[in-house]
Design goal:
By secondary structure, the protein is mainly β. The chain contains 1 helix and 10 strands. The longest helix has 4 residues, at about 110-115.
């Protein structure tokens, strides 16, 4: 499920992650929101993507039943790379964080200059996580999106359009 709305939240990668409990700065740009789904069918949280004039923000917020152990993020103007079997390799995604102990929220901020994007450019984004329940059982989780890959492994990815003007984006 994807929803666009204007809100003040989101993420960080490449530069230090925001401390647990902190949120990204407010923005007038639309926020792309989608579900984080574990084990193909289990609701595990929410993912939000937005940008300011200089940063891309990605926030992963797990629901009460799950915590984040590992986060892998792919964000690029180049479509998601696949291995010979037609599947992505999350361990090779450029933005990665390991939490010990596990955390409820991950916020990553990526400088737009590092992504070499301009206004209205599209980014391919894939978000893969290892999530843990209260008993310590783990599941693979992906941010939902309309795109899939031809290989046999499950998961999704999506496109995000960089907002041009932080002050003039439509609501």
């Amino acid at each position: 499920m994807q929803r666009f709305f204007v809100a003040a939240t989101l993420a960080a990668l490449l530069t230090p992650s925001l401390a647990s409990g902190q949120t990204p700065p407010p923005t007038n740009c639309p926020v792309y929101e989608t579900d984080l789904t574990a084990g193909q069918t289990i609701p595990a949280g929410t993912v939000r993507v937005s940008n300011t004039p200089t940063m891309l923000y990605i926030e992963i917020d797990t629901n009460d039943d799950w915590d984040l152990g590992v986060v892998h993020i792919y964000a690029s103007t180049v479509d998601l790379p696949l291995n010979g079997g037609g599947n992505p390799v999350p361990g090779s995604f450029p933005y990665q964080t390991v939490y010990t102990p596990a955390e409820d929220v991950h916020v990553e901020a990526i400088p737009l200059s590092d992504l070499q994007v301009d206004c209205d450019d599209n980014l391919y984004i894939a978000i893969h996580c290892d999530v843990y329940d209260a008993s310590g059982n783990s599941e693979t989780a992906w941010a939902e999106g309309p795109k899939t890959w031809p290989g046999s492994r499950w998961g999704w990815y999506f496109c995000y359009t960089v907002c041009c003007d932080d002050l003039d984006c439509p609501e």
